[in-house]
Amino acid sequence: MNVVWVSAPRIRALNRRFRSTDRGTDVISFRYDADKEFPSPAVSGDLFVCVGRARYNARRFHVSVEEEAVRLLVHGTLHLLGFTDYVPVEKKKMWRRQEGIVRRLGFGDAFPQI
């Protein structure tokens, strides 16, 4: 797994090119294993994390930048593992797992249980 820290314009360009969404975001993940029939059990892919958005989120949610960076890394990793947050029920499951991992990594409980 590779982690690439990028600027807001760069992540917006990635979002536009690969997701056809012309707006910024905080993290984008790209799986290496595109074979849906025989997925790899290993985490493999690239995470692009927007540094500016991590800073913004940290201020917005009153957490440290380090905590927010960990949260974004966990979030992107869960996407690499096949979790989605596009449907409310799936988002709830994903965020519950994400926040549990963030807490186990020693960071606070900035977000309520969803």
How would you describe this structure in keywords?
114 residues, Collagenase (Catalytic Domain), three-stranded mixed β-sheet, 3 strands
Present the secondary structure layout.
Blueprint: E1 2-6, H1 8-19, E2 27-31, E3 45-50, H2 51-61, H3 65-80, H4 88-104
Helix pairs in contact: 2-3, 3-4
Strand tally:
3
Instruction: Fill in the CATH topology.
Output: Collagenase (Catalytic Domain)
Task: State the end-to-end distance.
Answer: 28 Å
- Contiguous uncertain segments of 5+ residues: none
CATH architecture designation:
3-Layer(aba) Sandwich
- The total number of structural domains is 1
Number of helices: 4
Could you state the order of secondary-structure elements as H and E? EHEEHHH
- What is the CATH homology-level superfamily? Metalloproteases ("zincins"), catalytic domain
Using only C-alpha atoms, the radius of gyration works out to 14 Å
Major β-sheet profile? 3 strands, mixed
Overall helicity = 40-55%
Based on helices, strands and strand pairing, what is the structural class?
A: alpha+beta
Question: What strand line-up does the widest sheet have?
Answer: 1-3-2
Average pLDDT for all residues: 90
* Shape descriptor: globular
Beta-strand proportion? 5-15%
What is the CATH top level name? Alpha Beta
